[in-house]
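#onboarding

Welcome to the new folks! Below is a worked example of what a typical request in this channel looks like: someone posts a single protein sequence, and someone else replies with the predicted structure as tokens. Don't worry about understanding the tokens yet, we'll cover that in week two.

Example request:
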Amino acid sequence: MLDYKIEYESISSLNLCRGRKGSPVCMFTDICLSKFPPLDDINYKYCFECNRYTLLTNQHCSLCQRCVKAERNHCNTCN
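Example response:
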């Protein structure tokens, strides 16, 4: 699953050019996630544990082996 932010041209409230944050999109695919480099590499980093690109603000959780939002309490290790 990819967590890239996109903007919609037809929905002004989700337009990044107007100071909005964009819309996180969950793309489900069986293609290797390392094959999807972000267009905006300023806001993303490559996680070598997950073998994919993720948001700079995400952190890799060693318990669940995923990159998750830093403020999200999703498991005992990340609390």
